[in-house]
User: Fold this.
Amino acid sequence: MMHNKDTHIRNEADKTLLMLDDLPELTPHHLFRVRVMETIERQHPVLLHAPVMARQGVKMALMALLAAVNIGTGFLIARSVQEKPMVSKHEVIESLSSEYSSPALSYFIDQTAIDYDSE
Amino acid sequence: MTLQNTGRSTSDEQFAALVAEHQAMVINTCYRFVLNREDAEDIAQEVFIEAYRSMNKFRGDAKISTWLYRIAVTKSLDHLRKKKRKKRFSSLKRLIGQQDPIEEIDLKAQGTPSEELLEQERYTALQNAIESLPDNQKTAFLLSKYDGYNNQEIAEIMQTSVSAVESLIHRAKKNLQKKLEKQYRSRYS
Assistant:
């Protein structure tokens, strides 16, 4: 009796193990691949679109550089204008008269300077 | 097949082609571990998402299929561990009078209700016996039960030798037989 029971138990164990050999071969759901790609896109939009964003990033960087150069040039010009001191009207006249008042540059002979006695 | 980052649409297309080529193997590999179609497909999805995330880490020292199936085995084992923890928590809940819904294994409806019940009980006994195996015996044994793998491929997935795989399969069979007999003995005594 015990022997029959042992045999029965062993047979049940064997049958149970054989179930693994009879497992069906699953066919993937026809939307499996679509779902995978959708999940990836949802979780990693940066990764999927990285090359496109890289191109746009280059454009933005160039525009920023151009703006920086323009602004920098503008600051430099404004600074150089400020550094030159303002000259007064009196100083301008004085400088002009000292430059152009030599007798060599006069258009006419100074009559008062002629020696009438020599004639 | 090598994956290259040659541009957005090219790498997406390459990856989609990889999924199409290997989805059946990955799903069926996971199914051998979890014995549930829905769980197998969920795990398979995680496998491909992990593969996408780790593409740059793939050194090319193994076939891409081997690398994928290795991820499938890891994810399946993780799932079984989580399930075991959930079961322990469920038994605690049962102690305080709260029940979790019973997880049923996929079975083709065949025979009488009593035959179906017997079949369900056999699957439960099988699941319990498999879960009690160490991970390496479990992996070697379950992969050997799927026609898609020979011992050489199993050795590559497990990063071990063919003789080690054969030894693991032999030990797993002996242990499973012992555990199942113990379960049935306690049932029939």
